[in-house]
Write a structure and sequence with these properties.
It is built from 5 helices and 5 strands; from the N terminus they run E-E-E-H-H-H-H-E-E-H. By secondary structure, the chain is an alpha+beta fold.
Length: 200
């Protein structure tokens, strides 16, 4: 049975918004309870909110994958070892997620090593890893302000291992899209594994 929804909004007053009000949409379930979405503040908050949404969406996408499906080689043709199975894709997503945050920490002078990709035996392990790397990322932004996100001087930007140059905002936007692209890849892998339709 479908649960009816009422879309409404509430006005919330935030500091740093020149005392303006912003409208935050809420969803009210007409049965039993009310769910109110909360948002982090500012441009940093927007980046983290969208990053978290992407991570949660990926976690939901993999929730019905069996341990056998996780480890099965789906793409035998690719030369990219990170894209052969759902397991290898998730290991890559986790490792990259940490790497993006570590790039930002290194920019601030922190001495920290990168984390190697790890092949886990179950989806629940990867769901825990997703939660952990996002928590690590959120902690990375703890002392970063909105005005620090953009950097016009290339000499003060992050230079990645693949040669691209990013400021904090750009590498975080890249990180969000990285999760989304691999979520899409895993969705296609699931279809191929289950033989429900052809995928190109």
């Amino acid at each position: 049975m479908l649960i009816g929804l009422i879309i409404s909004s509430i006005s919330v007053k935030f500091q740093n918004f020149n005392d303006n009000f912003i409208q935050i949409p809420t969803i009210q379930f007409t049965k039993h309870n009310i769910m109110i979405k909360t948002y982090r503040q500012g441009a940093v908050g927007a980046l983290l909110d969208e990053y978290e949404r992407a991570v949660l969406d990926l976690s939901q996408t993999i929730s019905d994958i069996t341990d056998q499906e996780l480890k099965t080689i789906v793409d035998n043709e690719t030369v990219d070892a990170t894209c052969k199975s759902i397991q290898s894709v998730l290991a890559h997503v986790i490792g990259s997620g940490y790497a993006y945050a570590i790039y930002i920490r290194k920019l601030s002078g922190e001495k920290i090593n990168y984390i190697a990709d790890v092949l886990r035996p179950s989806v629940s392990d990867y769901q825990e890893d997703l939660a952990a790397f996002f928590a690590f990322t959120a902690e990375t932004f703890k002392n970063i302000t909105d005005h620090q996100l953009e950097q016009l001087d290339n000499k003060k930007k992050i230079v990645t291992s693949w040669g691209q140059t990013y400021d904090i905002e750009q590498i975080t936007e890249h990180a969000v899209l990285h999760v989304l692209r691999h979520r899409r890849q895993i969705e296609k892998f699931k279809i191929l594994l289950r033989g429900t339709e052809s995928v190109k």
